[in-house]
Design a protein that fits this description.
The complex is a heterodimer of chains A (about 220) and B (about 70).
Chain A: H1 20-51, H2 56-79, H3 89-102, H4 105-114, E1 117-120, E2 124-128, E3 132-137, E4 143-150, H5 156-169, H6 171-177, E5 179-184, H7 186-190, H8 198-208
Antiparallel strand pairs in A: 1-2, 2-3, 3-4, 4-5
Chain B: E1 2-8, E2 11-18, H1 23-38, E3 42-46, E4 52-55, E5 64-68, E6 71-73
Parallel strand pairs in B: 1-5
Antiparallel strand pairs in B: 1-2, 3-4, 3-5
The chains are: A alpha+beta (about 220), B alpha+beta (about 70).
């Protein structure tokens, strides 16, 4: 029997299907890209100071660039989970009820506190928001930020439920359809996340650090 | 009683309810199901914690069938 494939992957047929190996390679690409953005500016700053100490203002600008460009990428990653404008209270309540039915007790509690719905998958631990998701890889040392959404006028919790169901249907297909906005160390992302969401990232990292039980369905409690 | 719901701007809307053996209600649910699929919705049933499955025919014994819209990269 073949594994289920998310139908939306047909719309991005040119993309290779994401798997753990491809994800690792993309992560390494992001690391190389970060160094490529940072090292030339730092080298320029060092060279300027070495050649002419009075050029320190220009060297300082180069250092700011070396720090700022990776920070902008991390900010772009955090943007995928920032809350969007809410619908009217009644539809939001109804949608939240359905989302709550889809989540286990601990996950529901984490979502209520942080706005992010946790989901453990084979690629890592996901934190699903209304217009994107974070994936904390096994070991908790890298996080990927995925921009993915559902079109139309929907309550916030329904948007999250859409993404959660699609993720549960086909995790690798979900990552294939989504656009990777950032990949890097969790500490880089954490500073850019809205403060209420930070505990969810910490909880996901703690869970991602635990041995994965593979495909086994397990009611692992979410760290608080 | 099984339910067919569609996630929409109201939170969700119940389109059909049926019980196994109730032919009229099941037929109505199948008709509603087919109409929504034709309109571009995908039907999903939960298959245990952390798992869901897309279905292309109404699973009469499922407790809840959820209709969702397609997702796309942002």
């Amino acid at each position: 029997m073949s594994a289920p494939v998310l139908p939306e992957t047909a719309a991005v047929y040119w993309r290779p299907r994401i798997d753990a190996g491809r994800l690792r390679r993309r992560g390494r690409g992001w690391t190389v890209s970060t160094f490529a953005h940072t090292i030339p500016f730092l080298a320029t700053a060092v060279l300027l100071i070495a050649l002419e100490p009075l050029s320190f203002p220009v060297a300082a600008i180069a250092v700011v660039h070396a720090w700022g460009i990776p920070a902008l990428y991390a900010n772009r990653g955090a943007n995928v989970v920032r809350p969007r404008p809410r619908a009217a209270p009644a539809p939001e309540r109804t949608a939240l009820g359905l989302l709550g039915d889809l989540l286990a007790h601990d996950a529901r509690d984490l979502h209520a506190r942080t706005g992010l719905a946790p989901e453990r998958g084979r690629l890592g631990v996901w934190l699903v928001a209304e217009a994107g998701a974070l994936l904390v890889r096994a070991g908790g040392r890298r996080v990927d930020c995925w921009c993915v959404k559902v079109e139309g006028d929907l309550p916030s919790a329904d948007r999250t439920a859409h993404l959660l169901l699609a993720l549960r249907e086909d995790e690798e297909g979900f990552a294939t359809v989504a656009n990777l906005a950032f990949s890097g160390a969790p500490w880089r992302l954490r500073r850019r996340l809205p403060a209420p969401m930070r505990p969810a990232l910490a909880a996901a990292r703690a869970l991602a650090d635990q041995p994965s039980p593979g495909d086994q369905v397990r009611p692992t409690p979410w760290p608080t | 009683m099984a339910r067919l719901i569609r996630m929409d701007q109201n939170g969700h809307t119940t389109l059909a309810e049926w019980t196994v053996g109730d032919t009229a209600a099941t037929d109505a649910a199948v008709a509603a199901f087919s109409a929504q699929l034709a309109a571009g919705y995908y039907a999903v049933v939960s298959t245990g914690e952390g798992h869901a499955e897309q279905v292309r025919a109404l699973p009469e014994r499922a407790e809840l069938v959820v209709l969702r819209r397609p997702i796309a990269g942002g």
